[in-house]
Amino acid sequence: MRIAFFVNSIESEAPYYTTTSLALSARARGHDVCYVTPDDFVLRPDDSLLVRAVIPHPSKTKDQDAFIAGLRAEVSKETIDVSNIDVLFLRNDPSEDADERAWAVNVGAMFGRLAVERGVLTVNDPNALATAQNKLYFQDFPESVRPTTLISKSLDEIRSFIDSQKRGVILKPLQGSGGKHVFKIKSNKESNLNQIFEAVSGEGYLIAQGYLPDAVEGDVRLFLMNGRPLEKDGAYAAFRRVPAKGEVRSNIRASGTATKVKVTAEMLSVAEMVRPKLVADGMFLVGLDIVGAKILEINVFTPGGLQNLEKLYDVNFSDLVIEALEKKVSIRQSYGAQITNATLATL
């Protein structure tokens, strides 16, 4: 099996990324892997679709640092017809390209659709990802699992919303990730409120969410695969992201810390509530960020943290992900186009 990982750029890949863990697990299971970026698709006049892929060094190293060093050292690319790729794994973060490479934001979804048309299993399903380019996708899920939320560019609307929330609000851009420009606002009387509005509104629409008191302890990242909690040997793929002292953000990129967590019946109930839509949308691998009985975000592009889990619980969840892809490719070989990509993605 050959898996192509679609990422923002080779230079931005890091040893601790979930994509690295997935690639190493795939190679350990005897599969070929390659990396593709937004620059690398080619649609020829004969309607053939190709990718100019970077092939990692053939060494069987299990060391993440050595693997990424070898990946970055590759200067040549191999042109591959997508018909020779079994799985296109879309692992880019569109928000990282929004400012300086706006043209690259939709490339994964656009060419992912073309790959699907040519029989390539593409996860997560590109048609659904096209509708999930920002946090507005979250509003399609049941109200019972969402914090009270306002989305607007009107500062008057946002001020009124702040007044209505006695515990304060979390303010952040509609588009973005990694905890960038996320602020906790206690009331309209805060002296730096105008500066916060200016910083966040520069990125477009704003999301204001009612603050959840349990968030002081951080949130829980719970992985779902095929719409269900990822689990192995009684251990769930979940960890608590604890914010650094004085921080409202629990993102690992924002100095949050990953710690063990006991997955509760309440968390599983929340996951079950969002399962039907995730399955219908063909969302193969997803990360839920949970606080209490609410979900702060649903990460469908590049949910990260599998390596944190492997260190915390000594369980290789990446192997489960690759094993699931193996089964899907086998089904595709047996049934061909009779089963749609979106259905196969979460089968």
UniProtKB/TrEMBL annotation:
Keywords: ATP-binding, Glutathione biosynthesis, Ligase, Magnesium, Manganese, Metal-binding, Nucleotide-binding. InterPro entries: ATP-grasp, ATP_grasp_subdomain_1, Glut_synth_pro, GSHS_ATP-bd, GSHS_N, PreATP-grasp_dom_sf. Its cofactor is Mn(2+); Mg(2+). Pfam families: GSH-S_ATP, GSH-S_N. Its EC number is 6.3.2.3. It catalyses: gamma-L-glutamyl-L-cysteine + glycine + ATP = glutathione + ADP + phosphate + H(+). Belongs to the prokaryotic GSH synthase family. This is Glutathione synthetase.
